[in-house]
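Reproducibility note. Readers wishing to regenerate the assembly model reported in the main text can use the exact inputs given here. Chain order matters: entities are listed in the order in which they were concatenated for prediction.
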Amino acid sequence: MSKYEYVEIRPEVYIKIRDFMKKLGADDFIKCFNCGTCTVVCPIAEVLGIVPFSRKIIRYIMLGLEEDLVNSKEILLCLHCGECSEYCPKGANPAETMHALKTYIIQNYLLKR
Amino acid sequence: MEGAKLGEVAVVGGGIAGIQAALDLADTGFKVYLIERSPSIGGRMAQLDKTFPTLDCASCILTPKMAEVLRKDNIELLTLAEVVDVIKNGNKFKLTIKQRPRYVDTNKCTGCGTCVEKCTARGKLGAPDEFNEGLGTRTAVYIPFPQAVPKKAVIDPNICLRLRYKRGCGICEKVCPANAINFNDTEKILNLTVDAVIVATGYKFIDPRLPELSIYGYGKYPEVYTNIEFERILDARGPTGGALIKKDGSHPERIVFIQCVGSRHYKINPYCSAYCCMASIKQAILAKEHEPRVDVTILYMDIRAYGKGFQDFYNRAKNEYGIRFIKGRTTGIIEDLSKKKLIVKYEDVLRGTIETMETDMVVLALGIVPNIPSFLNKLGIVRNGRVIIRSEDPISTYVDGIFVIGAALNPTDIPDAVLQGSAAAARVTEYVLRRKTPFKVMRS
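Running the prediction on these inputs yields the following structure tokens for the assembly.
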């Protein structure tokens, strides 16, 4: 029942996304240490069964998995209620990250299509 | 021993670090003033049941050292005393110490406890017991704990009926066989001149009632405990006599430990408090030993088992005692009133699922911050709530002759605190002798 698969880590993609986010002032996500607090408070994670949102998304950026990131419908479903940023123990601001990622996806994919 | 030949040293704080420093200095031949804020020395370690990672009895290590402080002729113990001001004058320090009244003559009191039995301010009229972290009450005249040093009674002026109303009661004065009660005791200001000061003021817990920590419901739900309160419940000298029971007297089926409460949080204390992983593992093992059927879960962020024997201790807890370790962080505790259970919701990070757990007791592993006395602030060696130390020497500050050790410097466990106590004693010896001997002492 192995649901794990090997992925290729791409640091250059991480740096690209991080620089983009920095321009938008949303590079707090580099403080994340994957504690899972955001997932527990997220109002849509459990209801829509997209656990572990938003920890997963930040993990995708860290590993540079751009395709997974772009195909994640969760980012576009995010309500920006800000609960995750409120509870985050590191101040990594996941809500802000999701907002900026929307911009990233629209600029790099939806507009170029 | 011929005291005061080498010099005089003040040790501020009578916890395990301060006691160790005072004993080592006294053995070397210094006159030591051990200044303690509470009525008895011992500090936080006196409240502990067992120590990690060996599960040794804490008081078996501490109590002989405390008793030795009294036996040494060249240690002068000042309890209920606080250092108000320190002025550096040449190579000497002038200390102003405010000593609160004990209302009991320490030369006459034998520590028999007759006054404690007869005291009328008890129960609702009493005060929360500091030694049991407020889980029990104590009387107005009390002996802090059975192994207290000095084992003398002390009167709390806030609740003593005689001291509050200036008349009436006074039953302790009548029953005391040694005639030791003195209601006319007053606050004293003492002035000391010493060669060096060792600061071992320890730590304070982060307040679990902070708004950022209100999600854990401490103070709202009766079965949410801090870890020092839980330690008192496990202790045979504690409020329950060593029985692991809830506040309503029933036995818990499940206990959940929540780690990193108030530490590693950017709004409260961004640093790791260092002791809580091992302390929670120790308490989990003790809970299992008290009640083998109880289900113990530890919700952690990272297990930081950095010291000697710590990793083995963690493995033993996991494999031998069957304690569940779940990587995850809860964001809130809610109460199920019909079942009288607490519900903890968390994400199991390693599986990626959101889960809820019903539990009877929740133990919060509180973070700690150094307890900085105000005179260090005046000397200008404190930044952001931490004492600045020299990079080449981890206990010396930038004021020559002031040494900071133990948890006053950084969150420390007991072995490190003892180590730093001895280190400070050696440093003080070197520092004082370097000034007194005519020879030039080599210094690296």
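We highlight two features of this model. Chain B touches chain A through 21 residues (CB under 8 Å). The longest strand of chain B covers residues 81-89.
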